[in-house]
Amino acid sequence: MKDGTGSRRMLADEVSTAALSPAEARLLFRGGVVTPTAGWCAGYAQANLIIVPKAQAFDFLLFAQRNPKSCPILGVLDAGETSGPLLADGDIRTDLPQYTVYVDGEKVAEPTDISGYWRQDLVTFIVGCSFTFEAALQEGGIPIAHIDQGTNVPMYRTSIWCQPAGSISGPLVVSMRPIPASQVPDAVRITSRYPAVHGAPVHVGNPEELGITDLSRPDFGDPVQIQEGYVPVFWACGVTPQAAVMESRPALAIGHAPGHMLITDARDSSYLV
Protein backbone atom coordinates (compact mmCIF):
# COMPACT_ATOMS: atom_id res chain seq x y z
CA MET A 1 0.00 0.00 0.00
CA LYS A 2 1.36 3.41 -0.90
CA ASP A 3 1.73 5.93 1.91
CA GLY A 4 2.55 9.00 -0.19
CA THR A 5 6.21 9.11 0.92
CA GLY A 6 8.40 10.30 -1.90
CA SER A 7 5.42 10.84 -4.18
CA ARG A 8 6.07 13.27 -6.99
CA ARG A 9 4.17 16.55 -6.70
CA MET A 10 2.71 17.68 -10.01
CA LEU A 11 4.14 21.06 -11.04
CA ALA A 12 2.31 23.58 -13.17
CA ASP A 13 5.15 23.68 -15.71
CA GLU A 14 4.98 19.92 -16.29
CA VAL A 15 1.48 19.91 -17.69
CA SER A 16 -1.52 22.20 -17.84
CA THR A 17 -3.50 20.62 -15.02
CA ALA A 18 -6.57 22.68 -15.92
CA ALA A 19 -6.63 21.08 -19.38
CA LEU A 20 -6.57 17.48 -18.14
CA SER A 21 -9.63 15.28 -18.36
CA PRO A 22 -10.88 13.75 -15.09
CA ALA A 23 -9.76 10.30 -16.26
CA GLU A 24 -6.26 11.62 -16.99
CA ALA A 25 -6.06 13.30 -13.59
CA ARG A 26 -7.26 10.19 -11.77
CA LEU A 27 -4.64 8.13 -13.61
CA LEU A 28 -1.93 10.53 -12.42
CA PHE A 29 -3.15 10.26 -8.84
CA ARG A 30 -3.29 6.49 -9.14
CA GLY A 31 0.33 6.66 -10.22
CA GLY A 32 1.41 8.58 -7.13
CA VAL A 33 0.98 12.31 -7.81
CA VAL A 34 0.08 14.10 -4.57
CA THR A 35 -1.25 17.65 -4.77
CA PRO A 36 -4.24 19.80 -3.87
CA THR A 37 -6.64 19.77 -6.81
CA ALA A 38 -7.92 23.37 -6.94
CA GLY A 39 -7.79 24.49 -10.57
CA TRP A 40 -7.48 20.99 -12.02
CA CYS A 41 -9.67 19.73 -14.89
CA ALA A 42 -11.45 22.96 -15.77
CA GLY A 43 -15.18 22.46 -16.30
CA TYR A 44 -15.47 19.31 -14.18
CA ALA A 45 -16.92 18.99 -10.70
CA GLN A 46 -14.75 18.02 -7.77
CA ALA A 47 -16.03 16.20 -4.71
CA ASN A 48 -15.34 15.39 -1.08
CA LEU A 49 -15.30 11.81 0.14
CA ILE A 50 -16.45 10.06 3.30
CA ILE A 51 -16.43 6.27 3.56
CA VAL A 52 -17.93 4.44 6.54
CA PRO A 53 -19.01 0.90 7.41
CA LYS A 54 -22.55 -0.02 6.43
CA ALA A 55 -23.51 -0.05 10.12
CA GLN A 56 -22.99 3.75 10.23
CA ALA A 57 -24.12 4.53 6.68
CA PHE A 58 -27.75 5.39 7.52
CA ASP A 59 -26.67 7.76 10.28
CA PHE A 60 -24.30 9.52 7.87
CA LEU A 61 -26.97 9.74 5.20
CA LEU A 62 -29.38 11.26 7.73
CA PHE A 63 -26.64 13.63 8.96
CA ALA A 64 -26.14 14.81 5.38
CA GLN A 65 -29.88 15.21 4.84
CA ARG A 66 -30.15 17.35 7.97
CA ASN A 67 -27.09 19.44 7.05
CA PRO A 68 -27.37 19.88 3.27
CA LYS A 69 -25.35 23.11 3.15
CA SER A 70 -22.19 21.41 4.38
CA CYS A 71 -22.92 17.86 3.19
CA PRO A 72 -24.61 17.99 -0.24
CA ILE A 73 -24.64 14.39 -1.47
CA LEU A 74 -23.76 13.97 -5.17
CA GLY A 75 -23.69 10.19 -5.14
CA VAL A 76 -23.50 7.07 -2.97
CA LEU A 77 -21.75 3.80 -3.80
CA ASP A 78 -23.23 0.59 -2.45
CA ALA A 79 -21.31 -1.35 0.17
CA GLY A 80 -18.14 -2.72 -1.38
CA GLU A 81 -18.49 -0.81 -4.64
CA THR A 82 -15.35 0.95 -5.84
CA SER A 83 -16.66 2.78 -8.92
CA GLY A 84 -19.81 4.44 -10.18
CA PRO A 85 -21.28 6.97 -12.63
CA LEU A 86 -19.26 9.90 -11.26
CA LEU A 87 -15.94 8.14 -11.93
CA ALA A 88 -16.45 5.85 -14.90
CA ASP A 89 -13.68 3.22 -15.06
CA GLY A 90 -12.22 4.78 -11.91
CA ASP A 91 -11.42 3.28 -8.53
CA ILE A 92 -12.41 5.14 -5.37
CA ARG A 93 -9.54 3.41 -3.52
CA THR A 94 -6.72 4.81 -5.66
CA ASP A 95 -7.95 7.76 -7.73
CA LEU A 96 -7.67 10.64 -5.25
CA PRO A 97 -4.27 12.21 -4.64
CA GLN A 98 -4.42 11.53 -0.90
CA TYR A 99 -6.78 10.15 1.76
CA THR A 100 -7.22 10.39 5.52
CA VAL A 101 -7.92 7.26 7.57
CA TYR A 102 -9.55 7.44 11.01
CA VAL A 103 -9.76 4.64 13.59
CA ASP A 104 -12.02 5.38 16.56
CA GLY A 105 -12.05 9.02 15.46
CA GLU A 106 -8.26 9.38 15.48
CA LYS A 107 -6.32 10.06 12.30
CA VAL A 108 -3.95 7.13 11.81
CA ALA A 109 -2.72 7.52 8.22
CA GLU A 110 -2.75 9.75 5.13
CA PRO A 111 -2.15 7.22 2.36
CA THR A 112 -2.38 7.70 -1.39
CA ASP A 113 -4.02 4.27 -1.80
CA ILE A 114 -6.63 2.82 0.58
CA SER A 115 -6.76 -0.67 -0.94
CA GLY A 116 -5.17 -2.08 2.20
CA TYR A 117 -7.98 -0.67 4.33
CA TRP A 118 -10.79 -1.72 2.01
CA ARG A 119 -13.65 -3.89 3.25
CA GLN A 120 -16.75 -5.15 1.51
CA ASP A 121 -19.03 -3.42 4.02
CA LEU A 122 -17.71 0.08 3.26
CA VAL A 123 -20.20 2.61 1.85
CA THR A 124 -18.88 5.64 -0.04
CA PHE A 125 -20.55 9.06 0.06
CA ILE A 126 -19.50 11.54 -2.63
CA VAL A 127 -20.13 15.06 -1.35
CA GLY A 128 -20.21 18.34 -3.28
CA CYS A 129 -17.10 20.55 -3.15
CA SER A 130 -16.75 24.32 -3.46
CA PHE A 131 -13.80 23.88 -5.85
CA THR A 132 -16.54 23.22 -8.41
CA PHE A 133 -17.68 26.86 -8.51
CA GLU A 134 -14.21 28.42 -8.43
CA ALA A 135 -13.96 28.53 -12.22
CA ALA A 136 -17.23 30.48 -12.31
CA LEU A 137 -15.82 32.93 -9.76
CA GLN A 138 -12.69 33.38 -11.84
CA GLU A 139 -14.74 33.88 -15.00
CA GLY A 140 -16.58 36.62 -13.08
CA GLY A 141 -13.27 38.36 -12.46
CA ILE A 142 -13.02 37.33 -8.81
CA PRO A 143 -9.53 36.26 -7.67
CA ILE A 144 -9.08 32.96 -5.80
CA ALA A 145 -6.28 33.47 -3.29
CA HIS A 146 -5.24 29.86 -2.73
CA ILE A 147 -4.99 29.25 -6.48
CA ASP A 148 -3.11 32.49 -7.11
CA GLN A 149 -0.78 31.82 -4.16
CA GLY A 150 -0.26 28.13 -5.00
CA THR A 151 -1.53 26.79 -1.68
CA ASN A 152 -4.35 24.63 -0.36
CA VAL A 153 -7.61 26.36 0.58
CA PRO A 154 -7.81 27.30 4.30
CA MET A 155 -10.53 25.49 6.26
CA TYR A 156 -11.69 26.07 9.83
CA ARG A 157 -13.80 24.35 12.47
CA THR A 158 -16.49 26.70 13.70
CA SER A 159 -18.43 27.03 16.93
CA ILE A 160 -21.64 26.24 15.01
CA TRP A 161 -22.91 22.72 15.70
CA CYS A 162 -24.50 20.68 12.93
CA GLN A 163 -27.83 18.95 13.41
CA PRO A 164 -26.95 15.50 14.82
CA ALA A 165 -28.23 12.23 13.41
CA GLY A 166 -28.13 8.99 15.36
CA SER A 167 -24.55 8.40 16.45
CA ILE A 168 -23.13 11.23 14.29
CA SER A 169 -22.59 14.81 15.43
CA GLY A 170 -19.97 17.50 15.01
CA PRO A 171 -19.16 21.12 14.14
CA LEU A 172 -19.61 22.93 10.87
CA VAL A 173 -16.36 23.32 8.92
CA VAL A 174 -15.98 26.26 6.53
CA SER A 175 -13.59 27.13 3.73
CA MET A 176 -12.43 30.75 3.43
CA ARG A 177 -11.68 32.85 0.38
CA PRO A 178 -10.72 36.52 0.75
CA ILE A 179 -12.75 38.54 -1.75
CA PRO A 180 -12.36 42.23 -2.72
CA ALA A 181 -15.06 44.06 -0.76
CA SER A 182 -16.60 45.48 -3.93
CA GLN A 183 -16.96 41.96 -5.39
CA VAL A 184 -18.55 40.20 -2.43
CA PRO A 185 -22.10 40.65 -3.84
CA ASP A 186 -20.92 39.07 -7.11
CA ALA A 187 -19.34 36.16 -5.24
CA VAL A 188 -22.59 35.56 -3.35
CA ARG A 189 -24.64 35.76 -6.54
CA ILE A 190 -22.38 33.41 -8.53
CA THR A 191 -22.02 30.72 -5.87
CA SER A 192 -25.71 30.79 -4.92
CA ARG A 193 -26.37 29.21 -8.31
CA TYR A 194 -24.48 26.06 -7.23
CA PRO A 195 -26.52 24.73 -4.28
CA ALA A 196 -25.34 21.14 -4.87
CA VAL A 197 -21.75 22.20 -4.12
CA HIS A 198 -22.39 24.32 -0.98
CA GLY A 199 -23.96 27.31 -2.74
CA ALA A 200 -23.83 30.82 -1.27
CA PRO A 201 -21.54 31.69 1.66
CA VAL A 202 -22.65 31.01 5.21
CA HIS A 203 -20.85 34.08 6.56
CA VAL A 204 -19.13 37.24 5.37
CA GLY A 205 -16.71 39.27 7.47
CA ASN A 206 -15.78 38.94 11.14
CA PRO A 207 -14.48 35.37 11.66
CA GLU A 208 -14.96 35.58 15.44
CA GLU A 209 -18.71 35.34 14.87
CA LEU A 210 -18.00 31.77 13.73
CA GLY A 211 -15.70 31.10 16.67
CA ILE A 212 -12.58 31.46 14.49
CA THR A 213 -9.93 33.44 16.36
CA ASP A 214 -6.94 33.33 14.01
CA LEU A 215 -7.23 33.14 10.21
CA SER A 216 -3.49 32.47 9.97
CA ARG A 217 -3.99 29.09 11.67
CA PRO A 218 -6.54 27.04 9.71
CA ASP A 219 -7.55 23.64 11.06
CA PHE A 220 -7.12 22.14 7.58
CA GLY A 221 -5.30 23.37 4.49
CA ASP A 222 -2.95 26.37 4.39
CA PRO A 223 -3.24 30.03 5.37
CA VAL A 224 -3.49 32.60 2.59
CA GLN A 225 -2.45 36.24 2.48
CA ILE A 226 -5.38 38.63 2.79
CA GLN A 227 -4.75 41.87 0.96
CA GLU A 228 -5.95 45.27 2.08
CA GLY A 229 -9.50 45.89 0.96
CA TYR A 230 -10.35 42.17 0.90
CA VAL A 231 -13.03 40.58 3.11
CA PRO A 232 -12.94 36.98 4.41
CA VAL A 233 -15.87 35.05 2.98
CA PHE A 234 -16.80 31.63 4.36
CA TRP A 235 -18.52 28.72 2.63
CA ALA A 236 -19.78 25.50 4.21
CA CYS A 237 -17.19 22.80 3.61
CA GLY A 238 -17.33 19.09 2.83
CA VAL A 239 -14.68 18.38 5.46
CA THR A 240 -17.57 18.70 7.94
CA PRO A 241 -18.18 14.90 7.85
CA GLN A 242 -14.56 14.33 8.89
CA ALA A 243 -14.99 16.72 11.81
CA ALA A 244 -18.06 14.65 12.72
CA VAL A 245 -15.93 11.49 12.53
CA MET A 246 -13.44 13.02 14.96
CA GLU A 247 -16.27 13.95 17.30
CA SER A 248 -18.38 10.79 17.00
CA ARG A 249 -15.52 8.28 16.77
CA PRO A 250 -16.82 5.46 14.55
CA ALA A 251 -14.54 2.42 14.50
CA LEU A 252 -13.36 3.20 10.94
CA ALA A 253 -13.84 6.05 8.50
CA ILE A 254 -11.95 7.22 5.42
CA GLY A 255 -12.08 10.65 3.80
CA HIS A 256 -10.13 12.63 1.24
CA ALA A 257 -7.15 14.56 2.55
CA PRO A 258 -8.57 18.11 2.76
CA GLY A 259 -8.10 19.89 -0.55
CA HIS A 260 -7.14 16.63 -2.33
CA MET A 261 -10.43 15.92 -4.03
CA LEU A 262 -12.12 13.33 -6.21
CA ILE A 263 -12.33 14.81 -9.70
CA THR A 264 -15.57 13.52 -11.17
CA ASP A 265 -16.81 13.05 -14.72
CA ALA A 266 -19.73 15.42 -14.03
CA ARG A 267 -19.60 18.86 -15.59
CA ASP A 268 -19.67 21.93 -13.34
CA SER A 269 -22.60 23.13 -15.38
CA SER A 270 -24.68 20.12 -14.38
CA TYR A 271 -24.91 21.61 -10.86
CA LEU A 272 -25.78 25.12 -12.04
CA VAL A 273 -29.35 26.27 -11.37
UniProtKB/TrEMBL annotation:
Keywords: Lyase. Pfam families: D-Glu_cyclase. The keyword Amino-acid biosynthesis does not apply. SUPFAM superfamilies: PSTPO5379-like. Its EC number is 4.2.1.-. It comes from the Bacteria. GO terms for molecular function: lyase activity. The keyword Ribosomal protein does not apply. It is an enzyme of class 4 (lyase). Belongs to the D-glutamate cyclase family. This is Putative hydro-lyase LJ751_17185. It comes from Arthrobacter gengyunqii.
